[in-house]
Amino acid sequence: MFWPRTGVAALSTGYQVVAAFALAVIAVAACVHLLMVFLTLAPSNTVTKRHGEAIEDWVYPEFEQNWKLFAPNPLQQNIAVQVRAEVRMRDGGLRTTGWTDLSAQDGAAIDGNLAPSHTQQNELRRAWDFFAATHGADNRAVGLRGSLSEQYLRRIVVMRLYRSDPTSREGVIQRVQVRSSTTNVQPPPWSRERVSDKPVYRLLPWWSLTPDEAAGGVR
Predict the structure, then answer these.
(1) How far is the C-alpha of 148 from the C-alpha of 26, rounded, in Å?
(2) What is the DSSP letter of 141?
(3) How far is it, in rounded angstroms, from Cα 166 to Cα 168?
(4) Angle between the 124-133 and 102-110 helix axes, to the nearest 10 degrees?
(5) N or C: which end of the chain has fewer CB within 10 A?
(6) CB 19 within 8 A of CB 11
């Protein structure tokens, strides 16, 4: 009995070669990506010492891994990222917006959503974690990735302002200022533990935008 060919086998020889090549490229790319992520998590070794810069360029900031959920003492704080902007209006005047709580926007988008996007859940949160990990308490960069983390966070908040802030949409953003609001998660009613419920702010300096960012090149 003759069974009709299906899938790749049903293609002509030329298309089979193209399909096989594409699958091979995808497989190689997946293996390289997994290896890069593994090397960033593994203890320091000969490969990471010699090719550390190339490995970090591949992984950070989009593919950085965070294992705090599994730490002996998980995070017990809610951290919100907020931003305000200095906007050049059409009449030439400058206007400073109020604080926009970007984390609250993400929370509202996730609440009740059975399939929230990875961007809504992680983009802003991981960008802030990346910045905090590469800067000291004085907001000065520590290490080579500090400048990258600043640029990454700045481009995200500018993109979000152009999308959601009415004042920003009517003009051109010149500068942005970011702050975090950290609030302790309150213990359950039966606990004797008492923690402050007042937010603690970390205020970053004003950041000037590059010409492409101000022109909406990150929208």
Answers:
(1) 28
(2) B
(3) 6
(4) 140
(5) N
(6) yes
